[in-house]
Hints:
Elements: E1 10-11, E2 14-15, E3 20-21, E4 24-25, E5 66-72, H1 73-78, H2 80-93, E6 98-104, H3 106-117, E7 125-129, H4 133-138, H5 158-163, E8 165-166, E9 169-170, E10 173-178, E11 180-185, H6 186-191, H7 201-215, E12 220-222, H8 229-238, E13 244-247, E14 250-253, H9 258-274, H10 286-291, E15 295-301, H11 303-308, E16 324-327, E17 339-340, E18 342-347, H12 355-366, H13 368-376, H14 384-387, H15 397-403, E19 406-407, H16 415-420, H17 423-432, H18 438-450
Parallel strand pairs: 5-6, 5-7, 12-15, 17-19
Antiparallel strand pairs: 1-2, 3-4, 7-18, 8-9, 10-18, 11-15, 11-16, 13-14
Helix pairs in contact: 2-12, 8-9, 17-18
Amino acid sequence: MGLRHQFLPIYAGLSLPPWGHPGIPQEDGVKRQLIAAVGVAAMAVGLAACGSDAKTDGGNSAAPTSLTVWLTVDAQQNWPDLVKSADDQLTAKYPGIKINHEYYGWKDKNPKLDSVLATNQVPDVVEMGNTEMLPYMIKGALAPLDTSKFENSGAWLDGLKASVTYNDKVFGVPYYAGARVATWRKDVAADAGVTATPKTYAELTADLDKIQAKQGDKFSAWYQPSRDWYTAMSFVADAGGSIATQDGGKWKASLESPEAIKGLTAWKDALGKYMKGDLTKDDADRYIVYGLGQSGMIYGAGWEGGSAADPKFDKTGGKLKDNLVSFVMPGPSGKNLSTFLGGSDLAVPVKSKAKDVASEWINFFTNSKAQDALVKAGNLPNNKTQLAPLKSDPKVGASAEAAELSWFVPTAPGWLQVEKANILQNALQDIAQGKKTVEAAAKDADTAIDAVINNA
Length: 456
């Protein structure tokens, strides 16, 4: 989820992740909505896009005469030259092939995709949000791919690689990424005698202590919504824990592990000291709350600070615009806090009659040269090799460094049920409000997770 998708390159000096833009939060709505189960009743074929014509049933023994590519409007609006470059490379290899492009908004894409998957007129390439991949992989709607055909596949970012992998098979290619960063107000920090961003968690908490003391109890030194499970699970990952682990083909919830308890305790302690806002909130309107001027720091999508500084949301008299600084969030472990990556993947529906050629187009669209173009448009690349030099770029350096260490949700058959039941959100709110101890909430959450996580 993520996490989860509209994109604008750079806003208010901050890098914007691919799963959100000012004023239009998505999941990661900032929550990207979970899709309905794949395989819904077929709708009229007239709704479907034209699929590819191929000379053979598999589309793999001879070149198809056409290829249909579904992308979101992000590509159409922000990097159309990259689309054309991939097309030109493919047509150079297969003269006469017709490439059909269809562009969709994120809310429209999956309902359309669900309707055509029951027909024989599927697209050959489809863009998916990384948190959207899992149910389609589980239901067998996507074709397994040979990673050796894709440049930089050995260096894909961990969180993106996990999003395209199910039962040890790869069903997609990471396209671009977006990480979470800490953003704070340097004017508020300076008032408390803090002149530099922290590099360690000890420095962070010491700085937040000073800010909290200076601003008083009605001010959140760190505005951190309790129901934001992406941040809480980042603390779990930082401590070496996880939501669930797999053993013998079955998934088992693991929030009761000593590592997970340690991470949840650190998260709880931070909320108790620095979060003075509503403890029933999620992160969907975090950037709006931040714009009210009653908090010093947030940890979230890189675009959120810039959105808060938009005149529509900045209620501080314009103070946010020139006072926001983003930095990599340090973790209690001594390493950077492991981040949940947002982003997009590209997949090939299993019913495509042009699977091999579709894979070639995807490679042209995601290879090193293509990633360079995406970086220039304000994205993070899909691989660690090209990510490394970006860490010194003042515009995207914090996001680039944060993206190097990432985690993803369990790729379990019943994960959608875990999310739909708000198991993690409810447990975290109980902890934040003092209704349950960390240990009791973790135990109850594990029980609820175990009841559904292996059920497709």
